[in-house]
Amino acid sequence: MIRRMATLGPALCIALAFSLAGFAGEGVPQLLNYQGKLADSAGRPVDAPRYITFEFYDAPFGGNLLAGFSETQQVVVTKGIFNVLIGSATEGGVPASVFDGAEVYLCVKVQGDELSPRQRIASVAYAIRSVQADSSLRAAEADHATAADTAVDANSLQGHAASEFALKGDCPDITIIQAALADVQARLSAIEAAGFWTLIVEPPQGTGSTIPGTGSHPYLIAQSGGPITAIPDSGWVFDHWEGTAVSDHPNTNPIEISFGTIGVTKTLRAVFALAPMCLVPAGTFRTSTGVDVYLGAYFIDTYEVTNELYCQFLNAGGNDDHWRSESSIPPYEQQIIKHGPGSYSVATGMAQRPVRHVSWHDAVAFCDWRSAAEGLPAGTYRLPTEAQWEKAAGWDPVAGKLWTYAIQSDTISCGTVNYDLCVGRTTDVGSYPHTSFYGCYDMSGNLWEWCADWWQSSYPSGSSDPTGPESGSSRVLRGGGWDYGGADCRVSIRGSSDPASWRYGLGFRCARTSE
Fold first, then answer.
1. On the CB side of 485, how many CA atoms lie within 13 Å of its CA?
2. Where would I find the beta strands (DSSP E) of 28-86?
3. What percent of the chain stands above pLDDT 90?
4. What integer pLDDT is reported at residue 139 of this predicted model?
5. Do 288 and 410 contact (CB within 8 A), yes or no?
6. 3 state DSSP class of 11
7. 229: which strand partners?
8. Average predicted confidence (pLDDT) for the chain
9. Interval 293-309: pLDDT, tens
């Protein structure tokens, strides 16, 4: 249950925002600015998006829903604070008829739970309602009177001047009322003259979304446009913001957008990048041989290492072994091209293909280089153990089972896995939408992947973080490949090869501890 710790004074915000949004110009929606603060049951500020519903009733409890208006928005809440324009998710905004009754109460529901108490809308909003009605009168009489004669402001009563009404009883001096109403009208006029600025949220680069979403978002000049939140899709991570709305912190998410000036349009676009690694939490899983094994938490590459990344390793002086001779790899299989000592490039269209023709020794050398290139201790990046590979590929802790294939499925097809010559070649990493439970792509099909372990007939070799035997003649391979049948692409299938072998169907991905 979420409860409201405090709500910032809504009467003034609602009155001013509604007046400006409703009457500043044709086509501008009727919006009410609302701010608040949310905390959980322990009093801690909420710091995540929430679905908030706004409704208007004619009573503080129960009562009737006014004008049939009910609007739910996904609202960004940062350190408990949120700011929203009520009506921005409804065509035409908040109906003016909401304010026809004698009493109007704003009802706020967070994730379906109504906050208490409801907030009564103050009288300033009714003054604005009068201005709206009188605007039609001004238009109708425009041809028959001067502007001075027909101007009807917030101190008029159905077209009659306040001076036409006599005081009765203990009513205050009418001049006091007139002065107060004139002050309100002056404030409304000042805000109306100030106008709007606009934030245009552009479609993101990469795969993901933003809150608020893509489109044009008008704000009062006294209102900031932030915070804006970027939400990457599975397999992607937020990278940075672009656009004229970005100032000194393009890598901050959510990002706070500052105030704009009248008529200014700011742009903002989220840029998403492929997620580099998947987190596999610590815990026990049941292997394909039916043994329960505990593994500490670790990261594993979301994708097989690509030609683009491996080319950086070669050009940085990494182990090029068999890559030294162009004749080592047949021309029709060359995806990384050698131009001279320490000079390699990726063939056109091959940057995101998984690197192949990689020996086990090549893969280990790459992991060592990656640790050094990122300024991390030696051994931070390494090949996954066989048990780590299998858990990341097939284990589903929710279902409590190991899937047959690394796509959370017991069946495969040419639309879900690159296998059995469906394509006839490797495909770009992440080309297929299905992943393992932990978000890893292509762990069934595409390329066989090297593991750290020496091969042994029995698997696993221990019940806690097993690493295989200390010596042997071949290293473990897992996952099948683009030219292997479905039976070889099962999570449970084990293969092996001489660690010096660098056949065209061999690739790899890195792992590292979670610290």
1. 1
2. 32-39, 50-57, 65-75, 81-86
3. 49
4. 36
5. no
6. helix
7. 211
8. 82
9. 999 999 999 999 999 99
With 0-12 CB in 10 A as exposed, 13-18 as middle and 19+ as buried, what is 204?
buried
* Residues contacting residue 186 through CB under 8 Å, at least 6 positions apart: none
Q: Which of 6-20, 26-40, 117-131, 254-268 has the lowest mean pLDDT?
A: 6-20
- Phi/psi at 315 (5° precision): -75, -15
Q: What is the mean pLDDT of residues 56-70?
A: 90
CA dihedral 210, 213, 215, 221 (to 10 degrees): -90
H or E element: which one contains 22?
helix 10-23
pLDDT attached to residue 29: 57
Strands (E), 341-493: 343-346, 395-396, 401-402, 448-454, 475-478
- Given the structure tokens 């072994």, which residue do they identify? 321
Q: Report which secondary-structure segment, H or E, holds 315.
A: helix 307-315
Token code pair at residue 489 = 């692409």
Q: Closest Cα partner for 349 from 450, 441, 273, 425?
A: 425
* Tens of pLDDT, residues 441-483: 999 999 999 999 999 999 998 899 999 999 999 999 999 999 9
pLDDT tens digits, one per residue of 193-229 = 557 889 999 999 888 899 999 999 988 877 888 789 9
Q: Cβ–Cβ contacts within 10 Å for residue 191, how many?
A: 18
Q: Write 129-135 long-range contacts (CB < 8 A, 24+).
A: 129/96, 129/99, 129/100, 130/154, 130/156, 131/19, 131/23, 131/185, 131/188, 132/22, 132/23, 132/96, 134/159, 135/23
The set of residues, in sequence order, having a beta carbon less than 8 Å from that of 52 and lying 6+ positions away, is 72, 73, 75, 82, 84, 108, 109, 110
Taking the C-alpha atoms of residue 195 and residue 187, their distance in angstroms, rounded to an integer, is: 13
The gap between the terminal CA atoms of the chain, to the nearest Å, is 34
Which amino acid makes up residue 354? P
The sign of the torsion formed by the CA atoms of 172, 176, 181, 183 equals negative
pLDDT tens per residue across span 173-182: 677 777 777 7
Query: Residue 512's pLDDT is what?
Result: 93
Contact (CB, 8 A) for 231 and 222? no
Q: Which two tokens stand for residue 515?
A: 């610290």
The contacts found for 318-321 with CB under 8 angstroms, 24 or more apart, are 318/365, 318/366, 318/369, 319/361, 319/362, 319/365, 319/366, 320/344, 321/359, 321/361, 321/362, 321/502
Render pLDDT for 398-447 as a digit per residue (tens, 0 to 9): 999 999 999 999 999 999 999 999 999 999 999 998 999 999 999 999 99
Helix (H) or strand (E) holding 337, with range, is strand 336-340
